[in-house]
User: Which sequence fits this backbone?
């Protein structure tokens, strides 16, 4: 665990005082006065609902483990006593990669267990807050077919301040507006979080409900490449709307649901559950909707498929040129969520993904001279997938927890352990609006977030909850953004 001195490493003393005040309020103790760790054996749980105690194999603790998680009602439940405070939660388990739900005192924590390769393994699942006295913890649901051996809760210490990265873009030729934007994000890192939302009805809805506009507006480059134009023609107007947003003072971020340049399935298919799955052309960024072999394409720069990759990259670069000509900086997030392998650019593994990322970076910066971009990599902290410090400015996380109060502390802890002092951490996509106060209790302090839309956006939330979360003084909205640090070039001066 790393600790930082108040008022140094870019931290303000006020933020540090806030953390200490919180710890005092919940009764957390100093590191030299910490309570003992709490170990909960699965076979000794107060209730085993639908599961049994297993003893096969080696490597488990105690006299057995809980097995047989197959349906929603299958769970283990512990009741235990503790001192109040923040605790690191570690689970000992055996499974393939599985999603799991933990419920602590009624609060849901959604986590993902890594593949344990057939043996029992330990994994930290982030930080939780325990009450003084009786607590209840249950494990259930998720993707099922996992085995739980033990849970450990060890008193945790929260770093007082974040380690801030240098405000130096990875692109050595980045324009002044990019330096200004990155400097602004670094200045506020750990103290305030910038709000963001997808361009369109959600922006108006946020203003209607909260009285605020998001600081950041997001858009997709999905309609500007070969497959989209071939199937639906040219969709005009988005770039002009986003340029207008920049002139209104918003920060812009773009992502790219890149429909594969060829190999589209383009039909309804039978899914693994026997139900029909929509794999028509507009789903062509998904692995199940494309047969495109990106590894093969990248291996042969003379091939037709490689040239199709370049054609798509070049079309997006041409659109980005419109922003570069106006000195508009962009938080650019290509090839997102690669580690999940549900997109074709990630299905061939980390080396192929990194090769493609670097191709996009080099094509944009060297061939097209696009120096108006901050490069946002979206991953989960697995270093095998990371493209490199020289081609990444910000590390983003995409998260859709079942409860916006989920602090995502496990995800944060993993990413921060890798990138502290090197890169900013952001919620590049989020299902709704995060509860910043809940997150800060566990030391989680994102640079910015961008809400998704429709049933995974602000409109899914209760209006009063949305209003309360958006009123958090630690949130930074459009009205507070500086008006003179990254001003777009006047239209009369555009090349």
Assistant:
């Amino acid at each position: 665990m790393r600790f930082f001195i108040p008022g140094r490493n870019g931290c303000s003393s006020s933020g540090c005082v806030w953390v200490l005040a919180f710890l005092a309020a919940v009764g957390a103790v100093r590191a030299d006065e910490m309570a003992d760790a709490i170990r909960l054996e699965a076979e000794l749980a107060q209730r085993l609902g639908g599961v049994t105690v297993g003893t096969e194999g080696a490597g488990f603790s105690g006299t057995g483990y809980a097995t047989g998680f197959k349906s929603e009602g299958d769970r283990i439940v512990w009741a235990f006593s503790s001192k109040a405070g923040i605790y690191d939660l570690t689970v000992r388990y055996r499974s393939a990669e599985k999603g799991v739900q933990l419920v602590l005192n009624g609060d849901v924590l959604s986590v993902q267990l890594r593949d344990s390769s057939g043996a029992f393994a330990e994994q930290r699942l982030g930080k939780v807050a325990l009450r003084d006295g009786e607590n209840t913890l249950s494990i259930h649901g998720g993707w099922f077919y996992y085995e739980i051996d033990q849970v450990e809760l060890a008193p945790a210490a929260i770093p007082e301040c974040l380690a801030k990265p240098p405000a130096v873009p990875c692109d050595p030729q980045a324009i002044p507006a990019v330096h200004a934007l990155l400097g602004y994000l670094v200045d506020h890192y750990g103290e305030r979080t910038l709000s963001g939302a997808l361009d369109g009805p959600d922006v108006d809805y946020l203003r209607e409900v909260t009285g605020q506009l998001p600081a950041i507006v997001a858009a997709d480059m999905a309609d500007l490449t070969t497959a989209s134009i071939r199937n639906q023609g040219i969709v005009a107007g988005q770039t002009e709307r986003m340029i207008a947003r920049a002139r209104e003072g918003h920060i812009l971020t773009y992502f790219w649901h890149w429909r594969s340049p060829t190999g589209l399935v383009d039909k309804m298919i039978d899914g693994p559950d026997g139900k029909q799955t929509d794999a028509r052309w507009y789903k062509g960024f998904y692995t199940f909707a494309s047969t495109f072999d990106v590894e093969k394409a990248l291996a042969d720069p003379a091939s037709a498929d490689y040239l199709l990759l370049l054609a798509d990259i070049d079309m997006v670069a041409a659109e980005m040129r419109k922003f570069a000509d106006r000195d508009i900086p962009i938080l650019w997030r290509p090839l997102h969520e690669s580690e999940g392998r549900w997109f074709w650019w990630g299905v061939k593994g980390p080396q192929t993904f990194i090769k493609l990322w670097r191709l996009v970076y080099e094509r944009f910066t060297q061939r097209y001279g696009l120096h108006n971009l901050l490069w946002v990599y979206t991953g989960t902290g697995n270093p095998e997938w990371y493209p490199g410090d020289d081609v990444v400015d910000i590390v983003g996380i995409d998260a859709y927890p079942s409860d916006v109060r989920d602090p995502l502390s496990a995800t944060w802890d993993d990413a921060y352990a890798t990138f502290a002092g090197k890169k900013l951490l952001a919620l590049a996509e989020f299902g709704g609006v995060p509860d910043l106060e809940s997150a800060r209790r566990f030391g989680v302090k994102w640079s910015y977030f961008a809400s998704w839309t429709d049933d995974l956006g602000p409109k899914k939330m209760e209006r009063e909850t949305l209003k309360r979360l958006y009123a958090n003084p630690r949130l930074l909205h459009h009205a507070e953004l500086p008006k003179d640090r990254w001003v777009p070039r006047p239209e009369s001066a555009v090349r």
Observations:
- The mean pLDDT is 91.
- The chain is about 25% helix and 25% strand.
- The CA atoms of residues 198 and 453 lie 7 Å apart.
